[in-house]
Design goal:
478 residues; alpha/beta; Leucine-rich repeat, LRR (right-handed beta-alpha superhelix); 3 domains; six-stranded mixed beta sheet; 12 helices; 15% strand; binds 2-acetamido-2-deoxy-beta-D-glucopyranose
Length: 478
């Protein structure tokens, strides 16, 4: 252990320099981590002094280590200290101005394992010697703008393993900065972080050594920050060309080939609801997979067939529009590949049940279809097939209880839930009971002709018996 009598003070700084020469070889080692872990076998071994408030100085390197704040004579500081390590800082904030006032010759400041969340002030401009600042294992959430920008000699800034989530590039700027380390924080991957993409000479991002190791927190947990921010920035740019709101809803990862390379897959959600659109948009940002088009005046679904951008759009919400038919989707690529289709509140009266059934057989990912609040036609021709379709996919048709017959005055089935209608209720509607249907007329005509022919036969037989005269037609046949 180092004798505390050799500790540096303002008065004997010069003497200490000489001492360093003498002791630099013999100085005891603190190991890699100068502060013992908080919950460690050290407690049971009785080394409780590491856990209590405590300062130790290592002369050979002008290094002072304090746990739990400054203690004893160190509370007033020292001009001699060049390296200051603070563990378990007792407050939520720390004031770099105050620390550098106490230790004006600091070259390196290291703050470890603390609950501090904020810096009270930026680093002061008269800390001209300070070359490296490190925070590791703190709860530091944000840095003030220009936190380091007044430090003329700062070269290394190590902010690994803290609680930083958002950062402005101004917070990292310093005139001579060379290396910045940022990994091990819970980065929010949002467009505010787009400065990290600027790799021009002298940019802050070009100084971030571990730029490729930065990871996103929720909602893109465990995805790399740089490509995700790249995707988001591009999405926002493309979104400006639409009248919609765009969000990157999910970033998937897919393994490529044998090299186990990971490729990111972006899924964007674009909301163009209530925009007064009369047509489906013909431009969408790249990688749009979900499109909200509710509450517009769209009636035409042809873009789903014709416009290739819609091949990737697997969820479409078209509630409250003017769509009258979806039969043009029959046999289309889109119908074989969609995941969600919502057509609530449109003007659908029927659909091709067999074509839809066929598409659902092909389509492995269809997950939800909404067809409620449409004026469905209820008759013996369309409804039974539709009922079969609904009952064969009970988990797919999400709003089956709102799929009802249209409102028709004096019709028993008016506004009834289609799934619950019985076959007889559909197939013997009053219209069917009216006897003079064309087929009925034909039947009557055929029946009367049969009666006429039989009657003629009987008459001819009777005539032949009575007079022996053959009927006129028999006489004519050779
Ligand atoms: C640094 O500046 C602060 C005021 O900004 C002052 O209080 C302090 O004494 C200065 N320290 C040195 C070493 O000049
Ligand atoms: C920072 O702290 C983490 C644990 O909190 C530790 O694993 C890592 O080695 C430390 N890094 C440095 C450079 O001190
Ligand atoms: C970046 O610096 C290199 C040399 O260091 C120079 O050749 C290049 O033109 C610079 N690029 C920009 C965009 O300033
Ligand atoms: C985005 O979509 C394009 C095709 O439009 C595809 O080539 C690209 O891989 C997709 N990008 C991501 C990140 O998913
Ligand atoms: C889409 O935007 C509209 C308003 O523009 C909003 O009311 C609606 O909740 C949004 N929908 C989704 C799914 O975000």
């Amino acid at each position: 252990m180092i004798d505390k009598n050799y500790i540096l003070t303002r008065e004997d700084r010069r003497g200490a320099l000489i001492l360093v020469l003498l002791f630099s070889v013999t100085g005891s080692s603190w190991g890699k981590h100068p502060c013992a872990p908080r919950f460690d076998s050290a407690i049971s071994k009785g080394h409780a002094d590491w856990l209590t408030d405590h300062c130790e100085a290592k002369l050979s390197t002008f290094h002072l280590i304090c746990s739990g704040g400054f203690h004893d004579k160190w509370d007033t500081g020292s001009e001699g200290v060049r390296i200051l390590t603070l563990c378990r800082w007792p407050d939520k904030t720390i004031d770099p101005e105050e620390i550098l006032q106490k230790f004006p010759s600091l070259q390196s400041l290291i703050i470890l394992d603390s609950d501090l969340t904020h810096l009270k002030n930026p680093f002061p401009s008269n800390a001209t010697e300070l070359q490296s600042v490190k925070f590791n294992g703190t709860k530091l959430e944000v840095l003030p703008n220009d936190a380091f920008s007044q430090l003329p000699s700062l070269r290394i800034l190590d902010l690994r393993h803290n609680s930083l989530s958002l950062m402005n590039e101004h917070a990292l700027m310093a005139p001579s900065i060379q290396e910045v380390y940022l990994m091990g924080n819970e980065w929010k991957c949002v467009s505010e972080m787009s400065w990290i993409l600027n790799m021009e000479n002298d940019s802050v991002a070009s100084r971030v050594v571990d730029r490729d190791k930065l990871m996103c927190s929720v909602p893109y947990y465990d995805r790399p920050l740089v490509p995700v921010v790249e995707i988001i920035t591009e999405l926002e740019e493309e979104c400006l060309k639409t009248d919609c709101q765009c969000v990157l809803s999910y970033v998937g990862r897919r393994t490529l080939g044998a090299a186990n390379q990971k490729e990111l897959m972006a899924f964007a959600s674009v909301n163009c609801s209530s925009r007064g659109l009369t047509e489906m948009p013909d431009f969408l940002p790249k990688n749009t997979s979900t499109l909200y088009l509710s509450k517009n005046q769209i009636h035409d679904l042809t873009p789903l067939l014709k416009n290739p951008i819609y091949k990737e759009v697997i969820d479409i919400y078209l509630d409250d529009n003017n769509i009258e038919s979806i039969s043009l989707l029959e046999g289309s690529y889109w119908l074989d590949h969609f995941r969600a289709l919502s057509l609530r509140g449109n003007r659908l009266t029927d659909l091709p049940p067999y074509a839809l059934e066929n598409a659902l057989q092909q389509n492995g990912h269809a997950a939800s279809i909404f067809l409620g609040k449409n004026p469905w036609r209820c008759d013996c021709h369309f409804t039974p097939g539709f009922q079969d379709l609904l009952s064969r996919h009970p988990s797919l048709f999400k709003d089956v209880n709102e799929i009802t017959c249209s409102k028709v005055e004096n019709d028993e089935n008016s506004e009834k839930t289609i799934r619950e209608l019985s076959r007889t209720a559909i197939c013997t509607s009053p219209a069917d009971e009216y006897w003079l249907q064309p087929l009925d007329i034909l039947n009557v005509v055929l029946a009367s002709m049969i009666i006429f022919v039989l009657g003629k036969l009987l008459y001819d037989y009777w005539t032949f018996k009575r007079t022996g005269k053959l009927p006129w037609i028999v006489a004519k046949i050779p």
